[in-house]
Amino acid sequence: MTKTLAAAPPASHNISPARRDFYREIAPQNLAPLWEVLHQLVTAEPQSIIKPHCWKYADIRPHLMKACALITAKEAERRVLVLENPALPGESKITRSLFAGLQIILPGEIAPPHRHTQTALRFVVEGRGAYTGVDGERTEMHPGDFVITPSWTWHDHGNNGNGPMVWLDVLDIHMLKLFEASFREGSDSDEARPEERPRGDSMARYGSNLLPVDGSYSRPTSPVFNYPYDRTREALEAMRRREEWNPWHGLKLKYINPMNGDYAIPTIATFIQLLPKGFRTQPYRSTDSTIYVCVEGSGTTMVGGKTMAWGPRDIVVVPSWERFVHHASEDAVLFSASDRGVQEKLGFWREEKVNG
Ligand code: 1HN
Q1: Is the CB of 80 under 6 A from ligand 1?
Q2: pLDDT digits over 316-345, tens only?
Q3: Residue 118: what pLDDT?
Q4: What single-letter DSSP state applies at residue 27?
Q5: Is the pLDDT of residue 83 over 50?
Q6: CA–CA gap between residue 336 and residue 293 (Å, rounded)
Q7: pLDDT in tens, 6-34
Q8: At 238, which helix (H) or strand (E)?
Q9: Interior CA angle at 123 toward 138 and 106, to 5°?
Q10: Using an 8 Å Cβ cutoff, are 39 and 342 in contact?
Q11: 83 lines ligand 1 (CB under 6 A)
């Protein structure tokens, strides 16, 4: 499938001299004719310029290790290799709305505290023993954990383990850029922030199907900031016993904010799904370009005439409104993230389920 930025407007190749003169006349007044661009602005269907792509972890890991030899986590502030969509080099975009990168932190290192209006998620890919601190509470991270840094919360990371730790960062950077609403603040010291609240406090308070009476938590983002993989996996495993497979998704759950049942992060919808060995999803498309991380198992994703094979720790991006099929060659667990929640809130998210 060939893709262009947008269909050329029908009149663009033979604009009459009178019209051209008119456009030149109005340009200094910062005016332009809509009829020359209308069909690029309002297309009959989404025209995603994003390319489907698969980043193989085995190919990336040596580059992450090399980055460690070139710069410390402290000096880099965040030692991240950006996953750039092949259609948008240099823009730090994996999709039009989302940033994604792989962050590595070595034993004994810290990534100093800062805060910003962008919300981040971490999806842990490799290692153990590192923590992330959010507003004075630390959580230890393990592979498959989904960890949240809400907008404008102080956060830092440290690795007290004995091996490198790698996670995928996904941030809503390009949404804030669109709205020109980016703020950031560093801390006076480059040292880790002290632990002000006991570990496990947020989980106990908000992640136990209980909520504090007269609580004052008021952010739109989930107060649970680590969704540990062992609990997530257990839920999938318990559910699979009924064998009620959704033809398009296998078994798919969304991560929610216990305060309101909405997505855990308002700007980044996140999901976990199980595809049993041999399962092939029915063709599906939706208007949210989606990032997938393979947690376990292996399989392929077919999209836009391309077949991408994935295994543990590989990362795949599927563009908006392109039909795709996942096939699991072994029992597979996929984490995914997209801007679906934003589109739903604003009333324009669409999906198409083929062969229902
Ligand atoms: C950031 O603050 C983190 O806190 C990771 O770990 C990646 C990418 C762009 C801007 C800020 C982090 C980031 C980031």
Answers
A1: yes
A2: 999 999 999 999 999 999 999 999 999 999
A3: 98
A4: G
A5: yes
A6: 6
A7: 444 455 568 999 999 999 999 999 999 99
A8: helix 229-240
A9: 65
A10: no
A11: no
Return all residues near 43 (Cβ < 8 A) that are at least 6 apart: 6, 7
- Atom 3, ligand 1: residue with shortest CA distance: 78
Ligand 1 atom closest to Cα of 116?
Answer: 2
The CATH superfamily assigned to 53-353 is Jelly Rolls (2.60.120.10)
User: Where are the domains positioned within the chain?
Assistant: 53-353
Ligand 1, pocket-test mutation among 74, 82, 110, 171, most atoms within 8 A of CB: 171
Q: Please tell me the distance between residue 133's alpha carbon and the centre of ligand 1 in angstroms.
A: 13
pLDDT at 5 over 60: no
Ligand 1 centroid from CA 78, angstroms: 6
Which amino acid, 31? L
Half-sphere exposure of 333 (CA within 13 A, CB side): 18
Percent of all residues in the chain with a pLDDT value above 90, rounded to a whole number: 94
> Does the C-beta of 92 come closer than 6 Å to ligand 1?
no
Ligand 1 atom closest to the Cα of residue 111 is 6
